[in-house]
Prior knowledge:
Elements: H1 7-20, H2 26-40, E1 48-50, H3 51-58, H4 73-80, E2 88-89, E3 98-101, H5 102-126
Antiparallel strand pairs: 1-3, 2-3
Helix pairs in contact: 1-2, 1-5, 2-5
Amino acid sequence: MADDSRLPELRDCAEALCGAKQADSAEEHFAVRLICDAASVLREGDKHIASADLLGRLKTIADAPWSEDSFDQRQLAKHLRAFSLKPKPVRLGDTTPRGYDAEKITESSGTAAQQAKQAQRHRKITA
């Protein structure tokens, strides 16, 4: 799971990908930053996270677009679908809210980080 020490790396990942392809849609950039931030708010030991909890944690990131009141669970699900992540019933104690597999969020973030590094190298080579 992501921990606080990975926060700068994950933010760099999002920023690098956002600047990598100016022709890409704003929607794509938004999703990349979202997956990186989602991984950064996971806690050690999280196997699953309820959609409401993930959204609540994301909203604590002051400079993020999801800190806005208008960003809701529906929009969260829409943007995470870009990474083949769909909310499903998850077992959390005695409850089964809709949520996500924390490991899949982390894996998707890692893939995004790799793509960011490759894009950054490509920009250096072509510059």
